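Morning!

This is the sequence you dropped in the shared folder:
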Amino acid sequence: MLRLGSLARLNLVLASVIILAACSSSPPMRSGTSAKHGDKAAFYAGKLVGARYRYGGNTPKKGFDCSGLVQYSYRLAGISVPRNTRFQFQNSRSIRRSDLRKGDLLFFHQEGKRFSHVGLYIGNNKFIHAPSSGKHVRVSSIGNPYWKKHLASIRRFQ
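The structure's back. Tokens below.
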């Protein structure tokens, strides 16, 4: 009887570990992100220009960090995307600069950290992003010497 009780406890522990592991992974991506979704995400991000920056923020009320802005904008456009820059990078595919369209992701290396910042392309060589503490969601130019120097990858959700 003791062995059966121990086996039942072991099964419960294993089931708990599996459930918790599933909760900590990045959310599943919806496939088939279209130009329409990118346009919508860029549109919604544009409505957030002026929102305050807040590390870990992903709502207008709390404020936004860069990946929270991307996640929120795409959620409003009907697409579920991961929460942080690393998973957003991993769940997107590389594209050529000549193929840029609204809603594409611009990843930057900053302060020696790989892919530490992300913004949403909105057309005309511009992107929307939540830059850093004390600042607000804003529009910047890819042609700006700082952003041009730190641009690391141009990607699109799959």
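Headline: The beta strands are 58-59, 63-64, 92-94, 105-110, 113-123, 126-129, 138-141, 151-157.

More detail when I'm at my desk.
O.
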